[in-house]
Amino acid sequence: MKMRFLGLLVCLAALSSAPASANEPNLPNTYGSAHVSRVLNIDATCTLFCNIDAFPPLIGQNIPVRIEGVEMPAGAVDGEIVAFLHLVLTPPAPKPTPAILLKNIRRGVTFSLTADIEVDGKDLAQLLVEKGLARRVLRLGTADDASNPAAVAPAAVPQKIETTTASGMFVASKSSKVFHRSTCPHAKRLDPTKTITFQTRQEAEQNGRRPCKTCNP
Questions:
Q1: CB atoms < 10 A from the CB of 144, how many?
Q2: Would you list the domain boundaries of the chain?
Q3: What is the C-alpha to C-alpha distance for residues 116 and 207, in angstroms, rounded to an integer?
């Protein structure tokens, strides 16, 4: 496991050093893009287990990748989520195999990745939201935008956000070193389209962030 994790860091470092595409912003704390060669399994936490041939086999075989920007609402039916993801990502014959692209790759908790995922050019997170199977999580803007009000992305299924360490409960600006609870007053005032989310406080700290002094996450 230790060797696999070190290999993952090497792969991510190589991705981050590659020149950014003209159509893709150079976002901080992300590691470029990669194409999924094959989806092996899918679970109800919006995590894909897949092969990425561009990575060495030690890293790129059966690697878990979580869909960035969404979380499951209370009362969600796991079987419906998994069935929909299978239909989109691994459609039955004679439908062609879709092109799956991981964008803005980041390190996840333990040995995993998180990424924005496109399927034949369509945002997979948005497809889940439109089907009512997931909701957008809060995403902050930059620290300079803190004084400007911004609407949170509409949730397909209403859900009260609890101040716990559940998935997506910690958020941080892509250009700031401070992370917040999603219920923090600063978080509620910011643009929801330009931030990253963390599943745990430890993940946020490992990403180089420090806790907000207002909400003390």
A1: 10
A2: 2-135, 137-211
A3: 17
Closest-CA residue to 12 (of 47, 42, 56): 56
pTM of this prediction exceeds 0.70 = no
Q: What is the mean pLDDT of each run of 10 residues along the chain (217 residues)?
A: 50 49 50 93 86 90 90 73 91 91 86 91 91 74 35 38 46 82 77 76 83 83
| Spatial separation of the C-alpha atoms in residues 137 and 171, rounded to whole Å | 9
**Environment class of residue 68 by beta-carbon count within 10 Å: exposed (0-12), middle (13-18) or buried (19+)?**
buried
Cβ proximity of 207 and 198 under 8 Å: yes
DSSP string, 126-188: HHHHHTTS-EEPP----GGGTTS--PPPPPSS--PPPSSSSTT-EEEETT-SEEEETTSHHHH
CATH number belonging to the domain at 2-135, selected among 1.10.287.110, 2.40.50.90, 2.60.40.1220, 2.60.40.10: 2.40.50.90
* Strand duo 170-173 + 122-123: pairing: unpaired
Tokens encoding 210: 């420090």
